[in-house]
Design goal:
Helix content of chain C: over 70%
Largest sheet of chain A: none
Largest interface: A-C, 59 and 65 residues
Oligomer: heterotrimer
Number of helices of chain C: 23
Order of helices and strands of chain C: HHEEHHHHHHHHHHHHHHHHEHHHEHEEH
Radius of gyration of chain A: 34 Å
Number of strands of chain A: 0
Structural class of chain C: mainly alpha
Number of domains of chain A: 3
Strand content of chain C: under 5%
Shape of chain C: globular
Distance between the termini of chain A: 60 Å
Helix content of chain A: 40-55%
Number of strands of chain C: 6
Chain lengths: 437, 40, 638
C-alpha cells in the first residue's frame, strides 16, 4: 500500500499541486464566505478523488502483467472516484457517472477473467527442421526418446508415451510392465544373435517362413544383421513373431503390432532411425550410423510407402491427444490402440486378448455388484469411464493389474471418451454389436 | 368462467398439437426419430 | 426551368455520380487481375528462362502458375520484428481493436439511418415521420465525427503494422496488392457518398428528392459493406489461407485469395455483430443525453431514441448466435484442430466468459423493458409477474454458463473423478445448455410482448380467447423447451444432437407468432394512457449503458478469440510467428487488455459525444417539431 501511495504521488504530484494551488487561490480570492466554503469543499473532494485515481492507476500499471487478481480493484476505485466527482460537478455529472459505470462493468468482467483458471498457451515448438541426418548419436537418441516416451528422461516413467506409442505394449526396462509384447531390454544384443538364428526366422529363406507374411514386400528378403532385424520388425511385424506374442488364436503366426511406417503411427525413416539409435545408446552400445540405419529400413520399406517427414503441425496441448473425438468410434479404438489388447464386438481388428473382452452392457452391472468392487461407479457409463481413466480401480480376474496404461484420461479428448463409453455400454453378450457412430 | 375453461382447453389442444408436430417433423427432417425412447 | 426540376436534375446527377464512384473500383479492378497475372508471370518467365513454375493451391487444390514470392521465414530480431520496449503484439492489438470499434460503428450507423429514414418515408403519421427523419439525421451526425476518427485510427493501424511487423505486412500486401488499392478507392467513394448524403439532407427533404436521398443511403451502405468484406478477406486469409501454395506463393487467382473458407461466415457474422454493436453505441449516446438532459422535451426525445436503438440492436443480436454457429461449423470443417482449440482446448475458458456475457446482455435487455413499462399507464398489471421472469432467467442463465469439459491437470481430473463433475457435469451438456439459452430468449420475447401491450387493452372481439391462447402458447413453449432438454438425457447422442432444432424452432415460433398475434390484437386497441416518453427511471438508462459496454466487451473478446486461434502463425500454416510473442496470453491478461480497450474506446467516444454537444449548443435549437405531442407508438418498429 505504501508503495502504491508513493507511486501515485510521484505520478500525480503535478495535478495534486495544481489542485492545492487552486485551494489556496480560492482561500485568497473568494470573499463571500458561503461561496468560499463551497469552493474549498469542492477542491478538497477534487484532491481526494485525484489521489484515489492515481492510486488506482498506479495499481493498474504495476499489475498489468502480473498474476495479481486484485487488479480490477483499481477499476472499481475509479468508479467510486467518478461518482464522487459527479456529485460536485453537476454539469458533467452524467458523463462522469456513465464513465464510472462503464469502469465498473469492465472491472467486473476483468475480475471474472482473472478469477477463472489461468491457462497460458506455451511457446510454439521451435521450428527447427529436425535434421536428423546431421545429429550426433546422442542428439539422435534424445529425439528417439522423445518419439517413444514423449520427452527426454521420460523412459523410466510408467505411462509416459510419445508419438510412436511404443510403450503402450512394449516394456523397456527390467521388471517394467508390458505383457503384450516382448520387453525390449537387450534387444540390440538379442537381435543379431538369438533372433536371426532362430530356425523359425529362416534367415535368407523367406519362402520357408510360416508366418502371416513372408516378406516385407515381394523381393525384400530377410534381415542379415541385427539392425536389419529391428528394421524388419518395425516394417513388417508379422514377418516373424516372437513365440508367445502373436495374436491369440493364430498360433503366433500373426503379430498384433501395426506396421510403424503406416497410419496411424506413421513414423518417417529418420524418426525410426532416431528411435533405433536410442535403443542402442541407452544400453551404452555404439549405434550404427544414421545412414546405415536408414539403409536398413529402405531394404524393407518400398519407396512409395515411406512417409514424408512432416513438419510439426500445430502442437498445442490438444494435439498430444491420441484421438480428438471427431473420428468414428472404430477409429478411436484403433488410434488409442485399444484393439491390440481387447476384443470388442463389432470393431474390426479388435481381437486382442491381453485384456478382458469388452461387453460392458452385460459385464459392467455385474462388476459393480461384485463384492470386491471398490470403485465409485454407480452406472454402466460411469464404470466404463472409471475403467479408462483409472484402470486399477477394479481389475477383472484373472487379468493382472497395472497392465493397462493409466494415461487415457489425458490422451483422449472428452468427446472421444464419450464415444467409447457410449459404444461400449451398448455392447451386450449374445446380442448383435451396436452400429458404429 | 366456463367460457375461459373452454378457451383454455382449446388453446391447450392447439399448442400441444403444434409443438408435438414441431418436435416430430423437425426431428424427422434430420432423419432422426423423436419417439425413440417410447418405441423402445 | 423551374427550381424544383433543376434540383431534381442535380440530385439525379449526384446519385449517378455515386453509382459511378461505386462502380469505379470494379471497373479499375477488371484489368488488374489479368495484368497481375501476366506481368509477374512474364517476369518470372524471364528470370528462369522458359521454365514456368507451378504450384498447388493449399485450399482449392488447383494448379496455378507461381507469380509471388514465398512467405518470408522470419527470425526474431530487429529486422523482422523491430520493437519498442514493449510487447509489439499488445500495441497492435490496441490499434487494431480501436480501429475496429470505430469502423464497425460507422458502418452500422448508416444502416440504421437507412432503416429509420425509410420508416420515416413510409409512415403516414406526419409528426412521427418527422421524428424518424430527425432521428436518422441525428444518427448520421454522430457517425460523421466518428468517421474521421476511423480514418485516423486506420492510418495509425497501418503505421503500427509497417513499423512493428514489416516482414509480415510486406508479405500480406504483396498478396493483396490489387485488393488494397481497390479498398483505398472504395474508401474515397464511401467518404464522398457520406458527405453528399449528410449535407444534402435538408435540400432533399420532400417527395421525389427524398426518394433519391434514400437511394443514396442504400448506395452508401453497399459501399460500406463491400469495404468491410474486403477487410474481412485479410483476416480470412490469415486464418484459412487459400490461393497460395504451401510456401505461400501467390498463384495468380485473386478470387481464391479473397474467397477463403471462412470469408463468408465471417462476413455475415460481422455485419450482424456490427449492427448490434452500433445499436448499443447509439443507445448509450441516447442514455447519456437523457441523463444530461435539462428539459422534459429532451428527456422524451432521448428516451425514445434509446428505445429505438436498443430494439434495433437486440433485433440483430437474436440471429447472431446462429451466424456464430455457422462460423464455428466452418472452422471445424476447415481444421478440426482449430475448432478444438477454440471450444475444448486452450481458448475454452474464453467461451465460458462469452456465455456469461450473452446472459448479461439478455438480462439487461429484460431489465430495460421492465423499467420501460414504468412509462406507460396500465402496465402495472404486469409488474407483479416480473419476479417470476427473473427466476426463469436466472435458472436459464445458471445452466447456460455451466462448463462441460475443461482442460484440466491430472490432479484436478482425479479430484473430480473424470472429466465431468458428478453433479454439475449434467448441466454442462449441450442438451441442457440449449434449454438454458432458449428459456432466456423466450423470456425476453415474453418481456417484449408485455411491453408492447403494456398500455393497451385489445378491443377485437376474440380478445379473451387471444389472451388465453397467448398465455397457453408461452406456457407450452416453456414446457416443450424444458422437456426436450430433459429428454436429451435419456436418448443416445446421435439422436440427442437433433433435439436442438425443435428447441430453437419453439423459441422462434414464440418470437414470430406471438409478435404477429400481438400486433393483430393490438390493432386499434384502447389506450389506457399515452406512453409518457421521458418518464423512465434513470436506472433503465444504466441498463442501456450496461448493454453497450457488454457489447463492446464481447466484441473485443470474440475478436481476441478469433485472432488467437491461429496460435503461433501469422498466416495459418503458411507463415510462422517467430517473434517473442508467439505464445497465447492467459485469460486474465486478455480480460484486462479487453477492458482497457473497451474503456479507451468509451472514454474517447464519450469525448466525441461531449464535443458534439458543445457545437449543438451554439446552433439555435431547431424547432422541436418532433417532440412527442400525441405520443405515437413506435413499439412495432423493430
Amino acid at each position: 500500500m505504501g508503495n502504491l501511495i508513493n507511486e501515485a504521488l510521484s505520478m500525480g504530484w503535478m495535478a495534486m499541486a495544481l489542485l492545492v494551488g487552486l485551494l489556496i487561490y480560492f482561500q485568497v480570492s473568494i470573499s463571500d464566505p458561503v461561496a468560499k466554503k463551497r469552493a474549498t469543499f469542492k477542491t478538497f473532494i477534487g484532491i481526494i478523488a485525484a489521489f484515489l485515481m492515481f492510486v488506482a492507476i498506479a495499481n493498474y500499471k504495476n499489475n498489468f502483467y502480473g498474476e495479481n487478481r486484485l487488479l480490477p480493484v483499481s477499476l472499481v476505485m475509479i468508479t467510486a472516484t467518478t461518482f464522487m466527482l459527479a456529485l460536485y460537478f453537476t454539469n458533467l455529472g452524467a458523463l462522469l457517472k456513465i464513465g464510472g459505470f462503464m469502469f465498473f462493468v469492465a472491472a467486473f468482467l476483468s475480475g471474472y477473467g482473472n478469477w477463472l483458471p489461468q491457462v497460458e498457451g506455451g511457446f510454439p515448438p521451435k521450428e527447427e527442421k529436425l535434421d536428423f541426418s546431421s545429429m550426433t548419436p546422442q542428439q539422435l537418441a534424445d529425439e528417439g526418446e522423445k518419439i517413444i516416451f514423449g520427452g527426454i528422461g521420460q523412459n523410466k516413467v510408467q505411462g509416459a508415451i510419445g508419438k510412436g506409442q511404443c510403450p503402450l505394449c512394449h516394456a523397456f526396462h527390467q521388471g517394467m510392465l508390458g505383457e503384450r509384447a516382448p520387453n525390449l531390454i537387450g534387444l540390440p544384443e538379442r537381435a543379431g544373435k538369438e533372433r536371426l538364428e532362430d530356425p523359425k526366422y529362416s534367415k535368407g529363406k523367406p519362402a520357408a517362413r510360416e508366418y502371416a507374411q513372408k516378406e516385407a514386400f515381394p523381393g525384400s528378403g530377410t534381415a542379415e544383421n541385427g539392425q536389419e532385424y529391428i528394421a524388419e520388425s518395425h516394417a513388417c511385424p508379422s514377418c516373424y513373431v516372437v513365440a508367445g506374442y502373436g495374436v491369440k488364436g493364430t498360433n503366433d503366426k500373426e503379430s498384433p503390432m501395426p506396421a510403424i511406417h503406416k497410419p496411424p503411427i506413421s513414423l518417417s525413416l529418420p524418426e525410426l532411425a532416431a528411435v533405433d539409435t536410442w535403443l542402442y545408446v541407452r544400453e551404452g552400445r555404439e549405434a550404427p550410423s544414421y545412414e546405415e540405419i536408414i539403409k536398413s529400413y529402405e531394404k524393407f520399406i518400398p519407396e512409395a510407402d515411406r512417409p514424408k517427414q512432416q513438419e510439426e503441425k500445430a502442437a498445442g496441448p490438444a494435439s498430444a491427444l491420441l484421438a480428438d473425438g471427431s473420428e468414428p468410434v472404430d477409429q478411436i479404438f484403433a488410434k488409442a490402440q485399444c484393439v491390440s489388447c481387447h476384443t470388442i464386438p463389432g470393431i474390426p481388428g479388435a481381437t486382442g486378448t491381453i485384456g478382458p473382452k469388452l461387453e460392458e452392457g452385460t459385464n459392467a452391472p455385474l462388476r459393480i455388484k461384485d463384492k470386491d468392487y471398490k470403485g465409485s461407479a454407480k452406472s454402466t457409463p460411469e464404470y466404463i469411464m472409471e475403467s479408462i481413466v483409472d484402470p486399477s480401480a477394479y481389475v477383472v480376474k484373472p487379468f493382472p493389474d497395472n497392465t493397462m496404461p493409466k494415461v487415457f484420461g489425458q490422451k483422449l479428448s472428452a468427446g472421444a471418451l464419450k464415444k467409447i463409453v457410449d459404444y461400449l455400454s451398448q455392447v451386450k453378450a449374445g446380442a448383435p454389436p451396436p452400429k458404429i457412430s | 368462467m366456463g367460457q375461459s375453461i373452454v378457451y383454455g382447453i382449446i388453446s391447450l389442444i392447439i399448442c400441444v398439437a403444434y409443438f408435438t408436430l414441431v418436435d416430430h417433423f423437425l426431428m424427422d427432417m434430420q432423419g432422426l426419430d423423436y419417439w425413440y425412447l417410447f418405441r423402445k | 426551368m423551374g427550381l424544383v426540376t433543376r434540383k431534381k436534375l442535380f440530385s439525379i446527377m449526384a446519385l449517378c455520380a455515386m453509382v459511378g464512384l461505386l462502380l469505379l473500383p470494379i471497373v479499375m479492378s477488371l484489368p488488374s487481375p489479368a495484368a497481375g497475372e501476366e506481368a509477374p508471370a512474364a517476369d518470372a518467365a524471364k528470370k528462369d528462362g522458359d521454365k514456368v513454375e507451378k504450384g498447388r493451391d493449399v485450399y482449392y487444390k488447383t494448379e496455378g502458375i507461381v507469380v509471388g514470392a514465398p512467405a518470408p521465414k522470419t527470425t526474431d530480431g530487429p529486422k523482422d520484428y523491430p520493437r519498442y520496449n514493449f510487447e509489439s503484439r499488445v500495441l497492435l492489438w490496441f490499434a487494431n481493436q480501436q480501429h475496429l470499434y470505430y469502423g464497425s460503428f460507422v458502418l452500422a450507423v448508416p444502416i440504421f439511418c437507412m432503416v429509420i429514414e425509410f420508416m420515416g418515408v413510409v409512415t403516414k403519421d406526419k409528426a412521427l415521420a418527422k421524428r424518424y427523419d430527425q432521428l436518422a439525421y441525428d444518427f448520421i451526425k454522430i457517425s460523421l465525427t466518428a468517421y474521421s476518427l476511423t480514418a485516423i485510427l486506420g492510418g495509425i493501424l497501418i503505421f503500427t503494422f509497417l513499423t512493428l511487423y514489416p516482414a509480415f505486412f510486406g508479405y500480406l500486401s504483396s498478396i493483396f496488392r490489387p485488393v488494397m488499392h481497390i479498398y483505398a478507392l472504395m474508401f474515397v467513394a464511401e467518404s464522398g457518398t457520406l458527405y453528399i448524403y449528410y449535407y444534402g439532407w435538408d435540400k432533399m427533404k420532400e417527395g421525389f428528392l427524398k426518394w433519391i436521398h434514400l437511394s443514396m443511403s442504400v448506395i452508401l451502405n453497399v459501399i460500406g459493406t463491400l469495404l468491410m468484406f474486403l477487410a474481412n478477406s485479410w483476416i480470412g486469409f490469415m486464418m484459412s489461407p487459400a490461393g497460395v501454395d504451401e510456401q505461400g506463393r501467390f498463384l495468380g487467382n485473386i478470387w481464391h485469395v479473397l474467397h477463403t473458407a471462412l470469408w463468408n461466415p465471417l462476413n455475415v457474422h460481422r455485419i450482424l455483430g456490427n449492427m448490434a454493436f452500433g445499436g448499443g453505441v447509439v443507445a448509450a449516446y441516447a442514455a447519456y443525453k437523457f441523463l444530461a438532459a435539462k428539459t422534459d422535451e429532451d428527456r422524451a426525445h432521448y428516451d425514445w431514441m434509446g428505445y429505438i436503438a436498443m430494439a434495433l440492436g437486440v433485433a440483430f443480436l437474436i440471429p447472431l448466435p446462429f451466424a456464430g454457429y455457422w462460423l464455428m461449423r466452418e472452422v471445424y470443417a476447415y481444421r478440426q484442430q482449430m475448432g478444438i482449440t477454440l471450444m475444448g482446448g486452450l481458448l475454452a475458458w474464453l467461451f465460458i466468459i462469452q456465455a456469461t456475457m450473452i446472459g448479461i446482455l439478455f438480462l439487461s435487455t429484460n431489465y430495460y423493458l421492465w423499467q420501460a413499462m414504468g412509462r406507460m399507464r396500465g402496465a402495472e398489471k404486469y409488474q407483479r409477474y416480473i419476479k417470476y421472469l427473473v427466476f426463469l432467467l436466472a435458472c436459464g442463465f445458471l445452466v447456460f454458463i455451466t462448463p462441460h469439459t475443461m482442460v484440466m491437470t491430472p490432479a484436478e481430473l482425479k479430484a473430480m473423478g473424470g472429466q465431468q463433475h458428478p453433479v454439475l457435469g449434467n448441466y454442462g451438456v449441450m442438451s441442457a445448455k440449449n434449454g438454458g439459452i432458449n428459456v432466456i430468449i423466450t423470456t425476453t420475447v415474453l418481456s417484449f410482448v408485455w411491453y408492447m401491450r403494456g398500455n393497451k387493452v385489445s378491443t377485437v372481439s376474440w380478445a379473451k380467447f387471444g389472451n388465453i391462447f397467448m398465455g397457453v402458447f408461452f406456457a407450452c413453449a416453456y414446457v416443450n423447451i424444458i422437456w426436450l432438454a430433459i429428454y436429451g438425457y435419456y436418448i443416445p447422442a446421435n439422436v440427442r444432437v437433433g433435439l436442438s432444432v425443435p428447441q430453437v424452432a419453439t423459441t422462434l415460433s414464440c418470437l414470430f407468432f406471438m409478435f404477429a398475434l400481438n400486433s393483430v390484437m393490438m390493432k386499434g386497441a384502447k389506450q389506457m394512457g399515452p406512453i409518457e416518453w421521458g418518464k423512465i427511471s434513470a436506472r433503465s438508462q444504466y441498463a442501456l449503458i450496461m448493454l453497450a459496454t457488454a457489447f463492446t466487451w464481447m466484441m473485443g473478446l470474440m475478436g481476441y478469440i478469433r485472432s488467437s486461434v491461429r496460435l503461433f502463425w501469422h498466416v495459418n500454416e503458411i507463415m510462422r510467428d517467430n517473434s517473442p510473442w508467439a505464445y497465447t496470453h492467459t485469460v486474465g491478461f486478455a480480460a484486462n487488455m479487453i477492458s482497457f480497450n473497451v474503456l479507451f474506446f468509451w472514454i474517447s467516444i464519450l469525448f466525441v459525444f461531449w464535443l458534439g454537444s458543445l457545437t449543438a449548443k451554439k446552433v439555435p435549437v431547431e424547432a422541436k417539431a418532433g417532440v412527442p405531442g400525441s405520443a405515437p407508438q413506435p413499439a412495432g418498429s423493430h
